Amino acid sequence: VQLQASGGGLVQAGGSLRLSCAASGRIFSNNGVGWFRQAPGKERESVAGISWKGTSTYYADSVKGRFTISRDIAKNRVYLQMNSLEPEDTAVYYCAVARGPYGSSSELQYQYWGQGTLVTVSS
Predict the structure, then answer these.
(1) In contact, 46 and 34? CB cutoff 8 Å
(2) Distance (Å, whole) CA 54 – CA 67
(3) How, if at all, do strands 9-12 and 117-122 pair?
């Protein structure tokens, strides 16, 4: 399974970006997908996750109400819509495929990872 995360860039605080995660392979469409991020000097943390059908989602408290995860099953893509961005959201964002049908906040529950896309939010 190859994952490709894209959509990162430089944006001012209060702005929006939409990240996209594209993948090949049936496992992507049958498993949960998660977004994680790693800020400079910090550990990687969970941001959001979505179930294989897209009917169940979860969010880190820090992004609730600002970020929205969704998936387009026909296109084999998962998106992360990020609104009201803050400088604290600056990080490399990774998408990952879960070991089962649901997303999880635990990295241990993910088996495939993309290469990451950089999001920089200026104040």
Answers:
(1) yes
(2) 15
(3) parallel
Q: Residue type for 59, please? A: Y
How far, in Å, CA of 111 to CA of 82, rounded? Answer: 24
User: d(Cα 113, Cα 2) in Å, to the nearest integer?
Assistant: 8
pLDDT in tens, the chain (123 residues): 789 999 999 999 999 999 999 987 777 888 999 999 999 999 999 999 999 999 999 999 999 999 999 999 888 899 999 999 999 999 999 999 999 999 899 999 999 999 999 999 999
Token pair 């594209």 is found at 22
- Give the strand pairing for 33-38 and 91-98: antiparallel
Q: How far apart are CA 17 and CA 8, in angstroms?
A: 7
Give dist(CA 42, CA 7) in Å, integer. Answer: 22
